[in-house]
Amino acid sequence: MNPPRSVLITGGNRGIGRAIAEAFLAEGDHVAVTTRSGGVPTGALELKADVTDPVALDAAFAAAEEAHGPVEVLVANAGITADTLLLRMSDDDWSSVIDTNLTGSFRLARRAAKSMMRQRRGRIIFISSVVGMLGSPGQVNYAASKAGLVGMARSLARELGPRSITANVVAPGYVETDMTAVLTDEQKAGIKSQVPLGRYADPAEVAGAVVWLASPASAYVTGAIIPVDGGLGMGH
């Protein structure tokens, strides 16, 4: 049994983020979760913070460090969508998604890297999306933000690798969450017909990939994209 680690997850009150938090708690780790609306899993430290607010984010990090010690595993999961076709997409539709999904992740990584470099170890894991590689009509902003995480992770992998810090990306496909529950049966059937495994993912299956990337077994994996998409994005 490995000693418990200090883990920080953003957007961990529902969906994929909550499943990731539950998985690390099951490993016996000390888990802190940022949320805007509350309701984190039992056993996790709840931190109210919006990733677009640098002051709140820094305060959340400080609270996590005070409670659990320097953050050893960062999971940048918080994300939003503002879907619409390009010609209808406003500047705010663009900037709000980029600020949350991409700039928020940058701020998190920069803050976490400070203590990780001093410790000479750490795991940074970004939650991207198959859409970041495949593209999706009506999601120019979201796809750009999620693709940007790949470039960020690979740059960090090169920059921080000499200090034994890894940076990787998990790219889920369609997952059974509140965000996909709003789709019509016809839309769901159309999506499943494109997925070789013929179903959505369970959030726990995404969490499994994240926990593995944080484990000793993946110590030599960095700059990688781990798809958890049922084969939807093969070749990308």
Give a short overview.
With 236 residues, the chain is of the alpha/beta class.
List the helices and strands and how they pair.
Layout: E1 6-10, H1 15-26, E2 30-35, E3 45-48, H2 54-68, E4 73-76, H3 91-119, E5 122-127, H4 131-134, H5 140-160, E6 165-172, H6 178-181, H7 185-194, H8 203-213, E7 225-228
Parallel strand pairs: 1-2, 1-4, 2-3, 4-5, 5-6, 6-7
Helix pairs in contact: 1-8, 2-3, 3-5
Mean pLDDT: 94
How many β-strand runs? 7
The protein's oligomeric status is single chain
* DSSP helical segment count: 8
Give the structural class. alpha/beta
The CATH topology: Rossmann fold
Shape: globular
Order of helices and strands: EHEEHEHEHHEHHHE
Please tell me the total number of domains.
Answer: 1
Largest sheet: 7 strands, parallel
GO biological process, one term: fatty acid elongation
Organism: Nocardioides faecalis
InterPro entries: KR_dom, NAD(P)-bd_dom_sf, Sc_DH/Rdtase_CS, SDR_fam
Keywords: Oxidoreductase
